[in-house]
Write a structure and sequence with these properties.
Layout: H1 15-31, H2 36-39, H3 51-67, H4 77-86, H5 92-111, H6 118-134, H7 146-159, E1 165-169, E2 176-178, E3 188-192, H8 194-201, E4 213-215
Helix pairs in contact: 1-5, 1-6, 1-7, 3-4, 3-5, 3-6, 6-7, 7-8
Amino acid sequence: MTTPADVHDVRDPEQPGRLLTIERDALIPLLRGRAGEDFARPVAACPGWTVRDVLAHCSAALTRVAEGRFEEGVFSPESNDRDIADRADWSDAQVVDELERGMGEAGPVIAGAGGKLDGLALGEWVHAGDVREALGEPGAYGGAGLPDALALLARITRERGHVPVHADLDDLDEPLRLGESGGERPPGRFIGDGPTLVRLYTGRPVAGAPAFELAGVEAKELNIFG
């Protein structure tokens, strides 16, 4: 799918929910029938968390969104730890069931939030990539949802005034424009594939990723979660 660089400035309210449902349809079948030891695997991108912990965090966050429960301190590290602890007695299947529901039900709420929750949808998609990688499954930070993820990433970085970068991606015909300099700084340049770009912008390891070029900007400047 080709996405011109300039169309990302116009918000598509259905895009975050679409990203979640695309990933739901790919991830949930991978999780069904997995042995318990698979859910206990460590997740490199989330030190101290297992696959089950990441899934419980995601399912809890999406359920909160779907139910409109945004109490004080929600989504803080402490809140995330409580959500995981609250599900300690659940079976792995129950966690996956909640995640499946949340990935389907959160979209309309995110769509109606005017963009305030779009970053959460992108973050949950990235966590699905974390899980894929921990399980040794292909397609981490890529797959059918990548075009929507890249579009969201580009728009979010511009809205936040992030460091400007022009990305020439193997996955798109047109360059992707990320961040916004206001003319104060020339854009950096990335050449490589989309999943590697996602890794850089979300602080995920790039060791073992396909070769890429990054000029005019340091990798540590790109992390939107840093």
